[in-house]
User: Which sequence fits this backbone?
């Protein structure tokens, strides 16, 4: 496994990163601090040097606080990414607020929660619908100039918004969703990033656990499982996805790996992809996906995967309203 460049910076990151939304305890079920701390600790043994969090991961910053506790004196061994511009109000409603003052306040609070004097990668978590992206970008540029942030990123943005941000504050990374069934970024965003030497740190590589291949055709989601809101986990889409997973299971058997390992390996070797953000709330989960960094699918198996994706056809991926 070789570390990869983060944009044009001197930072180097592992092809698999730990995504820490699950340990925030908001949407994931059966989360506890002991498992969360052990999950972060497992990254060291697996060669993962990149942790991804956000100001809003937890109603009170639980994810960032757990990272601080887990890293202890080993903080300098990790590249930390966090995000600003999204928070929870008193009624626990999600608010997009990327005004310059808000971004500064959230960045400084994240620094305190993480127990550090700098954040390697600070993202605009989402554009503020009430203000130009350029104003948010200017705030992050100021944080970079002050040394509180080493590199700038953006998430949940369109190509036009990327251009607007980049003109004010040069981007080192973008964070969009991407997986075998969700490949829209290949049309415009991947080519843009390749032209501008911007890294792509993709989330949902396993599509909220669907592409891990463990949920069988008759699996029933718990009533409070938020994945019920996604068409991929319902009705005809669910059955099509299970047919697709049957193909992946056969390929996984041939290569002697798990379905999740095959999916992550495919993802991190796609053109333009720097890192796959793999969420985990128990150490065995990140150990499994980290293994995908240590080998590579053959051309024959990649062709089989592409054929299976084509046979699956377009997937309904948008969250239900």
Assistant:
């Amino acid at each position: 496994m070789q570390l990869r460049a983060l944009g044009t910076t001197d930072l180097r990151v592992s092809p698999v990163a730990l995504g820490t939304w699950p340990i925030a305890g908001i949407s994931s079920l059966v989360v506890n601090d002991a498992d969360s701390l052990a999950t972060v600790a497992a990254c060291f043994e697996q060669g993962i040097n990149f942790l991804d969090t956000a100001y809003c991961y937890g109603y009170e910053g639980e994810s960032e606080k757990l990272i601080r506790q887990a890293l202890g004196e080993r903080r300098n061994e990790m590249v930390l990414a966090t995000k600003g511009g999204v928070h929870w109000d008193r009624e626990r409603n999600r608010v997009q607020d990327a005004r310059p003052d808000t971004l500064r306040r959230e960045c400084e609070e994240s620094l305190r929660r993480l127990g550090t004097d700098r954040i390697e990668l600070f993202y605009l978590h989402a554009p503020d619908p009430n203000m130009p992206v350029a104003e948010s970008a200017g705030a992050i540029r100021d944080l970079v100039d002050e040394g509180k942030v080493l590199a700038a990123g953006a998430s949940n943005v369109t190509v036009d918004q990327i251009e607007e941000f980049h003109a004010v504050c040069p981007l080192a990374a973008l964070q969009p969703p991407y997986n075998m069934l969700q490949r829209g970024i290949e049309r415009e965003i991947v080519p843009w990033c390749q032209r501008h030497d911007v890294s792509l740190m993709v989330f949902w590589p396993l599509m909220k656990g669907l592409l891990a291949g463990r949920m069988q055709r008759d699996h029933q989601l718990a009533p409070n499982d938020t994945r019920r809101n996604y068409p991929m986990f319902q009705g005809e889409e669910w059955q099509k996805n299970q047919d697709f997973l049957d193909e992946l299971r056969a390929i996984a058997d041939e290569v002697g790996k798990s379905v999740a390992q095959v999916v992550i390996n495919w993802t991190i070797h796609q053109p333009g992809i720097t890192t796959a953000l793999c969420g985990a709330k128990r150490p065995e989960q990140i150990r499994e996906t980290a293994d995908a960094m240590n080998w590579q699918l053959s051309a024959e198996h990649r062709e089989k995967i592409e054929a299976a994706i084509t046979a699956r056809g377009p997937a309904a991926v948008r969250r239900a309203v």
Q: What stands out?
A: Residues 235-255 form the longest helix (21 residues). DSSP finds ten helices and twelve strands in the chain.
